[in-house]
Amino acid sequence: MFKSILRNVRGIAKRIWKLRLVKTLVIAILIFLGFDFSFPLRTNVPYSTIVTASDGSILHTFLSRDDKWRMYAELTEITPTLREAILFKEDKYFWYHPGFNPIAMVRAAVKNMLTGQRTSGASTVTMQTVRLLEPRQRTYRSKLIELFRAMQLEVHYSKDEILQLYLNLIPYGGNVEGLKSASLLYFGKLPTLLSLAEITTLTIIPNRPSSLQLGTHNALVIQERNEWLARFRTRKLFDDATIADALNEPLVAYRRAAPQLAPHLSRRLRTENPDQPIIRSALRPAMQATAERLVQQYANRIRAYNIHNTAVLVVDNQSHEVVAYIGSADFTNTFDGGQVDGIRAVRSPGSALKPLLYGLAFDAGVITPKTKLNDVPTNFNGYEPDNYDRRFNGPVTAEFALANSLNIPAVALLKEIGTPNLVSTLQNAGFSAIKKQAKELGLSMILGGCGVTLEEITRLYTALANGGKLEPLRFNSNATSPLPLREGDINRDSVSSSSFLRGGVTILSPEAAYLVTNTLTQITRPDLPNNFDNSYHLPRIAWKTGTSYGRRDAWSIGYNQRYTIGVWVGNFSGVGVAELSGANTATPLLFQLFNVLDYNSTTSWFQKPRINSKLSMRLICPETGNVPGDFCTNPVTDYCIMGVSQYRRCQHQKAIFTNMAGTISYCAHCLPDSGYVRRPYPNLAPELVVFYQNRHIPFEAVPAHNPACERVFGSLGTGQDGPLITSLTDGSEYFINPGQPAEMQLACQAANDVQTVFWYLNDKLYRRAKPTEALFFKPQPGDLKISCADDKGRSKDIRVIIRKE
After folding, report:
1. What is the number of H-type helices and E-type strands within the chain?
2. Tens of pLDDT, residues 753-794
3. Where is the PLD phosphodiesterase domain (predicted)?
4. How far apart are CA 804 and CA 739, in angstroms?
5. In this structure, are residues 229 and 247 in contact, taking their beta carbons and an 8 Å threshold?
6. How do residues 185-238 score in pLDDT, each as one tens digit?
7. Cα–Cα separations (whole angstroms), residue 666 to 391, 504, 669, 757
8. Which of 381-390, 509-518, 590-599, 760-769 is the most confident on average?
């Protein structure tokens, strides 16, 4: 039975194939496909770039590459009212024909032949679209090409896409093309918001763009519009009430300026997404407008101090979206470089990187919040940093040092954990300038001796707000951005080029991030604005300031659970200003932004890590921050990271054997059989001893060692705990004028129990002196070995080279 059916089918197929019409049709299809393959239709139109906010409102528009306002209208923007109006006027059978209307073509040909002139056309919307894509002279040859192209268009695209392309190309006079362009530039609204009267107006102008000029010939436009509205009523296209409202609607149409908001981000996104006609940014328009207003008002106030530029970046900590982006206070101010994008300008960060350093030190176990650090003058192999206020505080806790942005403890910490560790972390965090400078960076980088951008440092602080995990900033919203109509293209989510981190990287543990945040929340600190109680409502935020060398850059970066805001203030020219500082110049604006953008936030504050958390409390000695030792009588509690924080017993005091009067100390070698006592004495670092002595701060010093001790004073030792030579610098070269050589200084730092030091030049005794006494000598060209020994027999050597100028 199956074979019988198959024979019948074959027989029917052979009889059909013998029909001439079928053969002709198949041959025509094959010819069409051949021409279609050989002469493909190009629909890659250069559109104007539109940058929208997160809610879809238009922020900024750019001319197309051929200087046209040709804005891309999406399918969702073609409303049913618009579709019905335009197709009723231009192509009633659009949904049914294959690109051309044969009945209309025959009717037009007959009519034109009878009249002897062209009185009627038969172009469909598809054919008009072809004509807009490939303009040609109006000849019969051109008409045949248009027919072929129209069928190509119908084969490759849906009816909706063809109508969309047509609406994107229709002319409105001058350099305005496309219904969306006309809607925005003449009515100030998107196509979805147009009324029937406005839609009708925009449907009639493309046929007569020179005579029906909006804003110039509005009376004529109204007359033509109403005629078409009457036709709509006759054909029952819309209900009578809608038509009546449209007839009575006044025409308020004139040429408007294209939207030009958020210029810095818009230009950036256009550069990063050159083929996107619509770029959906993550900016929130209300927040952007508010931030711009606050920045401009603040910039006007500080201009009197010769400070001209300000940049602000606001990031949503949950979505990592950039919700406000202000590259400068006034984009139109070309005199002060208003078109420079301060978000991406490389500047010196001052102290703004210190929170990361302390976080790394917490994770390395080097410190806990109450670990004591010495804020005293210190020489780091020739580098002698100073504090911002040129004052020193002596021993301070780590949290005090960070909250007060002290420089010496920060440099000492960086030396301990290693500059490569900090550089590597910043490289992993996407700091581009630091990647280039990596081989040149030293201890000074923590005080601003490197280059960062406001974007990079704000992104870094979002990691502190997110438990130490650094995520890429999102400049585009989650919505999919459309691409130009092009066969084979697929829409893709646009991601900024700054999204270098796939899934984010962890730069700090949650415990370290919490400890840093807890410290930066303190308000008993010097980087509050002057008289802030009278001028500002202090928001609940964690924040850090920074002021670069020469007062060229003022930074203030703050965060709460909801937002991270970065503020930079200064001059793009690099000119320093005496009044410029992170505390008094950048922080007031930071507070204003938080108070306006997130006032009385209901979002809870940061909580201690709980899941698998290693954060714990322990008793420590307040003198050092270490675990209490034998002489610690008043322990306090401090945070620690279990298994990470170092377990060191406190040795802030040490036991010394002295005579009964306390004037001579003994070692185990010279300890007498009787007449001695065991007393505790402060165990001070050499630099702290020097600090106390130079500032005449009283402290209990260890008595001089027993002069009769043969072990200590019998020969010069070579121990490794000798005095620290702070001048000159080991391994350095010094140039002198042999005729008038300048004197060079010898200085050292010795332990608390040292009373006398001995200076040697090339192994010859130069002079004996007190540890705090500065000596001077006149050098001679050549290699020079400098040795310093203390009265305990411990010594240190350095070598320098003296050269002629």
Report:
1. 24, 28
2. 788 889 889 888 888 888 878 788 888 888 999 999 888 778
3. 304-335
4. 10
5. yes
6. 999 999 999 999 999 999 999 988 878 888 888 889 999 999 999 999 999 999
7. 37, 60, 8, 18
8. 509-518
Taken in order 771, 774, 775, 778, the sign of the CA dihedral is positive
Place of tokens 């008993």: 524
Task: Give the three-class secondary structure for 161.
Answer: helix
Phi, psi of 563 (to 5 degrees): -130, 155
Two structure tokens written together for 160:
């909706």
Q: Which two tokens mark 100?
A: 């051309």
Distance separating alpha carbons of residues 513 and 507, to the nearest angstrom: 9
CB neighbour list of residue 443: distance below 8 Å, 6 or more residues apart: 380, 383, 385, 411, 414, 415, 419
Query: pLDDT of 656-665, one tens digit each?
Result: 888 888 888 8
Given strand 653-659, what is the order of strands in its sheet? 676-682, 653-659, 664-666, 704-705
Does residue 452 contact residue 431 with C-beta atoms inside 8 Å? yes
Within the chain, what is the greatest distance between any pair of CA atoms? 142
Query: Collapsing DSSP states into helix, strand and coil, what is residue 597?
Result: helix
With contact defined as beta carbons under 8 Å apart, do 312 and 326 qualify? Answer: yes
DSSP H or E run through 229: helix 218-234
CA angle 365, 366, 369 (to 5 degrees): 90
In the structure, what pLDDT confidence band is assigned to residue 121 with cuts at 50, 70 and 90?
low
Q: Could you give the CA distance from residue 565 to residue 341 in angstroms, rounded to a whole number?
A: 16
pTM, rounded to two decimals: 0.83
Instruction: Give the residue from 465, 214, 195, 136 showing the smallest Cα distance to 320.
Output: 465
**Start-to-end CA span in the chain (Å):** 113
More confident residue, 631 or 166: 166
Compute the distance between CA of residue 338 and CA of residue 597 in angstroms, rounded to an integer. 24
List residues with catalytic annotation. Answer: 90, 351
Backbone torsions φ then ψ of 489, nearest 5 degrees: -75, 150
Residue reference for tokens 């370290």: 512
Q: Which amino acid type is present at position 406?
A: L
Q: Report which of 364, 312, 555 is spatially closest to residue 448, judged by C-alpha positions.
A: 555
Q: Over 382-444, what HEC string results?
A: CECCCCCCCCCCEEEEHHHHHHCCCHHHHHHHHHHHCHHHHHHHHHHCCCHHHHHHHHHCCHH
